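User: I'll paste a sequence; please echo it back and then give the predicted structure.

Assistant: Echoing your sequence first, then the prediction.
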Amino acid sequence: VQLQASGGGLVQAGGSLRLSCVASGRTLSRYAMGWFRQDPGKERDLVAGISWSGLSRYYADSVKGRFTIVRDNAQNTVYLQMNDLKPEDTGVYYCAASWRAGPNLRNDECDYWGQGTQVTVSS
């Protein structure tokens, strides 16, 4: 299984980006999916997660009201729509999939990881 993340880039504060994560090799329709952010020298923290059905979502407090996670199981893809971006949103964003977890994924529960995409928000 491979997860291919894309959509990162450089944006000014207040701008928007949409990250995409496409899975190949097998269907992940029964996996919870999540987006994690990693700052230099720190662990990856969950930013947003979604259950396999799409009915349950989790958001970190810092992104509530600004980020939206959605999935398209027919396309084996999960998206993270990021609006009103702030400099503190800067980091490398990784998508991940977990068979065991719900929308509040833990790092050690994730079975597959994407390669990461850089998001930089300038002030």
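Residues 8 and 119 are 5 Å apart (CA to CA). The two ends are 37 Å apart (CA to CA).
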